[in-house]
Structure formats: C-alpha cells, structure tokens
Amino acid sequence: MKEKINTIKQKSIEEIENVSDLKSLEDIKIKYLGKKGELTAVLRGMKDLSADERPIIGSLVNEVRDTLEEIIEQKEQQFKREELNQRLQKEKIDITLPSNKLKRGSIHPLNRVIEDIEDLFVSMGYDVVEGPELETDEYCFERLNLPKGHPARDMQDSFYITDKYLLRTQTSSVQARTMVANEEKSPIRIITVGKTYRREDDATHSHQFNQIEGLVIDKKERNVSLADLKGTLEVFVRKIIGANLDLRFRPSYFPFTEPSYEVDVTCFKCGGKGCNLCKQTGWIEVLGSGMVHPNVLKINGYDPEKYRGFAFGTGIDRLAMFRYGITDMRYLYANDVRFLNQFDRKDEE
User: Fold this and answer.
1) Structure pTM?
2) Same domain? 58 vs 145
3) Domain range spanning residue 161?
4) What is the pLDDT of residues 284-309, one digit of tens each?
5) Out of 100, 130, 210, 327, which could bridge 316 as a Cys pair, Cβ 3.0 to 4.6 Å?
C-alpha cells in the first residue's frame, strides 16, 4: 500500500510539473484528488487493512494529499500570473497618444427652469405636488368646472386612451386632486410641475409640453386677494425670466377661475419698445391666472362662502424659450448636443 501511495505521489508530481495550462492542471487535480481519484481510491481501500496499518496509511495519504494540493496551488498561481502579464502586454494603452475628446452637454434648459421654479416657490412656503399623467375625465375636466359638452373643451385637443381615461391636457388636475385629498380643509399653498399632452405640433407648440400651476386656498378671513396673486406673479416672472420686466393683467376667461386674467410681460427682446417678436406691442403673453371659481371650490368639497383662493399656470417650455431666446420649441426635444451644450455659458451670461 505504501509503495502504491509513493508511486501515485511521484507520478502526479511529474505530471503537474509538465502541465502547460490551467485546464490540464484541473484535469490532473480531478484524476488524483477528486471523488473518484486515485488517492481517494486508496482511502476507500483502507477498510481491508488491519487496525494497526490504518492510521499509518491514513497519515501517509493525508501527507501526500497536502503536498499535491500545495504544488497544484503554486502551479495555478503561476498560470494566472502569466495570463495576467499577457493581458497587460496585449491591452496596454499608449498614454502619449492624443485622446478622443468626449462631447459634453449640460443640464437641459427645461430642467434648469423647473429646478429654479421649484426652489423659488419652496422658499416662499409652497409645497411641490405631483399627480398622474394618465388622468380621468373627471379630474381633468369635470372637477375644474368643465362638464361634458362645455365649449372650452374644444380648446384642448386631447389624447383619449378610453372613454374615461386620457393623457392630461393640463396640470390643473393635480389641483383638484389636492383639494379633494385635503379633508381637514387646512390652507393649501402648492405648485405642480409636469408633462401635459395636446394634439399640437409647430414651432411654438408641441404635442408634449411641461406646465407649472400654482394654487392657494385659505379661509376668507385670511383675505387671499388678487393683490396676493399679482405680487406672487411679479416675483415669479422677474426671478425666472428677467429682473426688469413689468406685468400687465388683462381680463380673460378660464372655466376654473373668476375673475380671470391673462398676464403679459414687457418684451425681453425690445424692452417694451415694440419689435417683430412682440408684434410691435411691447408685450408678450406668458400665463393665465385668476381667483378660484366658486364652482371649483364647491365641486371639490369647499364652501365658497368660507374659502377663497387664487390659481395660475403657464408652460415651462415657453418660459425656457423666453429665458434663453430659443426660437423653436422642437429644439427642446431633439436632444442635439450642439444645442444642449450652450446652456452653462448662457446661465453664466
């Protein structure tokens, strides 16, 4: 038995020394040390030995096993080092070669405007609220004082998914959801920012665009008034578009506010003198606003005799166009790096 073990030891060591790759080394390991290996077979045959021989043979087998495992480990590490050196030699990089310059963009102009708007209104005590883009007819229209058959619906050419669901045409639906969810009737001061969808596509319109809407509601004794709305919008417009702009309120009509106002700002291109951008008027329309309609309060669970508030809304895409002098809204969605890489410099200016 001892001679057999020594023969296995000598033979396996010779094979290990002459092996040329990791695969062959693994085959040798299985051949001698595996479950059906030659050394394992010796251990299984120990049952035929006497009680005195078993510990001697067992100790010898373990010694040979340890020796072989150590030699195999050393050989394995040698192969791995050689393989690594070959890879390093093959994959080395000549750092003296000129590099390929990576094209660099910047934060998207829409995201810049959105972040600035949110920072501004949070600093004024507003909460930023989100809502679903796939909306029900109830929240998109009916709870905003636009019942079925209302002519104002024709102004919002909509993408209906089913008879009940559509892609929201305005973020005002989030205002209705916020009012319904506010069961305690605590004061509301929110803005909501997000995507809206209408069937429009030209230089100044897109089938998808972003809106910001604001809503303030409180008890009547707090006297939320048109003066508060005007002051809020002055801060908003001057911070986001330009510090020296003036505002002009014009009476208008929106189903969800009464009274309602269109808000114009002095043309940022000519400073109010008149040019082709403002059609020689000196003013550019930027948003709609007004005091929350009593019907909207009532539909969404508020007593119009006890509560009042104001709301406003505008397209963020349009604000970005005004702020950065972008002439075609479709540039905002083209993802052209040549267009996007300008805006770090523009903000610095």
Assistant:
1) 0.66
2) no
3) 109-348
4) 889 999 999 999 999 999 999 999 99
5) 210
